[in-house]
Amino acid sequence: MPPRTRDEYHAQRVTIPAGAFLRGDDTRDDQAPRQTITLAEFQIGKTPVTVAMYQEFVRENPNFQSSQASQPGEMPKPPGGFGWGGKWDGKEGHPMVKVNHRDALAYCSWAGLLLPTEAQWEKAARGETGQRFPWGDSFIPTALRFSTHGFGRGNGTVPVGSYPTGASPYGVLDMAGLVWEWCQDWYEAGYYQHCKASNPHGPEDGTHRVARGGAWDTSGEDWFHCAHRSRFLPHSTFTNLGFRGVFLPDSPLERAL
């Protein structure tokens, strides 16, 4: 059942144990080198944040104005195409999209979450041994929501958790396909070549933020490789771009902005 509130989201969170994992891939410059990275324990949302969860945030913070809303206390304008029909109604269990990096951070602050670093995201997606996809090393079309009609085309989102066979080694869902997911990090193509090997948090600054996972309108299995790095300008709001949160053991659950 897709989570509808932040409390349900917290109840479903998945613990990723402390320790090392294999990050990256040597076949692409911005994913190289493949290396061992060590992370502290963290907890991550089992699914992306849903429309219902974001609606709860907007209702409880009537003075918050999303960059995609025309006035305070209003939801971002729903997409008008790509299978959505221009309405949020009936999409409560779908991943929240059209949220830029700033608004994703605002939601996370209210909900007692953070955006994952891309190292955290990748470990949660592929486990310790560096497998290619969340479910293993072979591409399985029935394990994810993706486009079979070519890049940039597709039938839109579906409720989160609709592809249980695509679960990661830790049981995290929707880490390949459905929506791209914002990460904390600024994007730098050569970052892996000089980053620290313990709890990396990305470059100090940049022009684009990292996004991971591929989406419903993405075609071609390489885009769903757990090591694949994409990026968007921080103000980007697309129908294929969402987010999930991480909950650190020592982070308080905040109740207001």
Automatic annotation (TrEMBL):
<feature type="compositionally biased region" description="Basic and acidic residues">
    <location>
        <begin position="1"/>
        <end position="11"/>
    </location>
</feature>
<dbReference type="GO" id="GO:0120147">
    <property type="term" value="F:formylglycine-generating oxidase activity"/>
</dbReference>
<dbReference type="Pfam" id="PF03781">
    <property type="entry name" value="FGE-sulfatase"/>
</dbReference>
<feature type="region of interest" description="Disordered">
    <location>
        <begin position="64"/>
        <end position="83"/>
    </location>
</feature>
<feature type="domain" description="Sulfatase-modifying factor enzyme-like">
    <location>
        <begin position="12"/>
        <end position="246"/>
    </location>
</feature>
<dbReference type="InterPro" id="IPR042095">
    <property type="entry name" value="SUMF_sf"/>
</dbReference>
<feature type="region of interest" description="Disordered">
    <location>
        <begin position="1"/>
        <end position="31"/>
    </location>
</feature>
<dbReference type="InterPro" id="IPR005532">
    <property type="entry name" value="SUMF_dom"/>
</dbReference>
<dbReference type="InterPro" id="IPR051043">
    <property type="entry name" value="Sulfatase_Mod_Factor_Kinase"/>
</dbReference>
<dbReference type="InterPro" id="IPR016187">
    <property type="entry name" value="CTDL_fold"/>
</dbReference>
<protein>
    <submittedName>
        <fullName>Formylglycine-generating enzyme required for sulfatase activity</fullName>
    </submittedName>
</protein>
